[in-house]
Each structure stands twice: as structure tokens, then as C-alpha cells.
Amino acid sequence: MQKMESKGPRFEIGDFCVKLGSVTINQNFKGVLVEVEYRPCVVPGSAWELIREFLQGFLGSTVSNQAPQYLQNRMNDIYQPLDTIQQYLEHFGQYRKATGVI
């Protein structure tokens, strides 16, 4: 069984919470995940532009103008912890495909 995890520090910057996670598969480094939460808002569509601008401030043009695929169909819904879990699962799946781990 392959063990995949994301571990790292958590920062609070004003109204934002930023989590940086080093992604490993069986203790082999595969990449970094950046999670950003804008705490005053629970509706992604109302906060996406602000989150995007915040991310572009330190990641530059690598940040897409469009919300992540998973959120595009949920922009007007109240964000739930299950939404975070689903996005992590999608990213972990992408890392598995990129490294050939099934």
C-alpha cells in the first residue's frame, strides 16, 4: 500500500490562513501543495478574486485566473470541510499519475 501525505506549516496572515504542504509518497518528496483560506467568507464565488490576487502576490503568474476545477461547479455553495478533502484527493491523484503510482 502506498502512503501519500502532505505535511507542513500553517500561517495566519490577516484574514487569510495559508498551509504549505510537502507532498510525499512513501517518504519520497513529490511536490508542494498550497492551501489558502479567506476566513471571513464561506462562499467561494464571493472570495475567489481576492484569494487569486493574494496567491499571485507570492506565486506570481503561475496562479490561474480561473478557480480550481472542483470549485467551478460549487462557486455559489457554502464551502464545507468535505470540499477540502475532495480537492486534496484530486491533487494526490494527479501526483500519483505523474509518478506512475496507481
TrEMBL record:
GO terms for cellular component: mediator complex. Coiled coil: none annotated. Its main location: nucleus. InterPro entries: Mediator_Med20. Keywords: Activator, Nucleus, Transcription, Transcription regulation. GO terms for biological process: regulation of transcription by RNA polymerase II. It is found in: Nucleus. One of its GO terms (molecular function) is transcription coactivator activity. Component of the Mediator complex, a coactivator involved in the regulated transcription of nearly all RNA polymerase II-dependent genes. Mediator functions as a bridge to convey information from gene-specific regulatory proteins to the basal RNA polymerase II transcription machinery. Mediator is recruited to promoters by direct interactions with regulatory proteins and serves as a scaffold for the assembly of a functional preinitiation complex with RNA polymerase II and the general transcription factors. Belongs to the Mediator complex subunit 20 family. PANTHER family: MEDIATOR OF RNA POLYMERASE II TRANSCRIPTION SUBUNIT 20, UBIQUITIN SPECIFIC PROTEASE HOMOLOG 49. Component of the Mediator complex. This is Mediator of RNA polymerase II transcription subunit 20. The lineage of its organism: Eukaryota, Metazoa, Ecdysozoa, Arthropoda, Hexapoda. The gene is MED20.
